[in-house]
Amino acid sequence: MVNATDPDQGTGGSVLFSFQPPSPFFSIDGARGTVTVTKPLDYETTSAYQLTVNATDQDKARPLSRLANLAITITDVQDMDPIFTNLPYSTNIEEDVPLGHVVRKITAIDQDLGRPRGIGYTIIA
């Protein structure tokens, strides 16, 4: 929510909000200043938005306005599956390899950007 006050009396003290220019991803309630999301956000596409809010008083004779910057930072969430590299996996080993012998190195990468996360591996028999 954004907030602005105007000390004028009557309609001149009433403030309406808008984005300049309008945003395709966010809208602002003109009377309350409440900012809402209007389209899906994706951190991997855009991690931050810089919006300009226009506050205009409702004086009929001479309306006044002021601009303010609104910075919105998007936080990455786990929404991308890991990807295995070097597929397909197929390995031949001899039956008498010693215990602890490395059979194959399996590698996957996390497609999510932002804060690095570990990838866990499970063998499903």
UniProtKB/TrEMBL annotation:
Transmembrane segments: none
InterPro entries: Cadherin-domain_protein, Cadherin-like_dom, Cadherin-like_sf
PROSITE patterns on file: CADHERIN_2
Keywords attached to this entry: Calcium, Cell adhesion, Cell membrane, Glycoprotein, Membrane, Metal-binding, Repeat, Signal, Transmembrane, Transmembrane helix
Gene Ontology BP annotations: homophilic cell adhesion via plasma membrane adhesion molecules
Gene3D superfamilies (alphabetical): Cadherins
Superkingdom of the organism of origin: Eukaryota
Protein's cellular compartments: Cell membrane
GO CC field: cell-cell junction; plasma membrane
Membrane topology: Single-pass type I membrane protein
Cadherin domain residues: 2-84
GO molecular function, one term: calcium ion binding
SUPFAM superfamilies attached to this UniProt entry: Cadherin-like (SSF49313)
PANTHER family: DESMOGLEIN FAMILY MEMBER, NEURAL-CADHERIN
Official protein name in the record: Cadherin-23-like
Annotated source species: Notothenia coriiceps
Gene: LOC104958887
